[in-house]
Design goal:
The protein is an alpha+beta fold. It has one domain (3-92). 34% of the residues lie in helices and 19% in strands. The protein is built from 3 helices and 5 strands, in the order H-E-H-H-E-E-E-E. It has helices spanning 3-12, 17-23, 28-42; strands at residues 15-16, 48-53, 56-57, 83-84, 87-92. It has a 3-stranded antiparallel sheet with strand order 1-5-2. The chain has a two-stranded antiparallel sheet with strand order 3-4. The longest helix is centred in the middle third of the chain and has 15 residues, at 28-42. Bound molecules: zinc ion. Zinc ion is lined by residues 57, 59-60, 62, 75, 77-78, 80.
Length: 93
Amino acid sequence: MTREEVIEYLKENSATAVDLSKEFAKSSAGIEEDLNHIRTSLRNDPEHQLLIRPAECLLCGYVFSTDKPKAPSKCPQCQEQKIRLPSFKIEKR
Ligand SMILES: [Zn+2]
């Protein structure tokens, strides 16, 4: 699998790192590296951008920073572990 395939996939689907890791049979660490790379390379793309729906606590609604694709395991606000993973989608600007 190449990063181009991940890019094409994300143009059609929104997916979490876990979804992508299943889809492309790759470790989540590898997928996170790809996502970071894709985000950087799309920064200069005039047509497309990587949209990140941030991780969110399902209990108290705390929204995590979008800086990292990796979801935190625990909510800093309520200390619970019911976190919805961040999801990614590539859309036209
Ligand atoms: Zn919380």
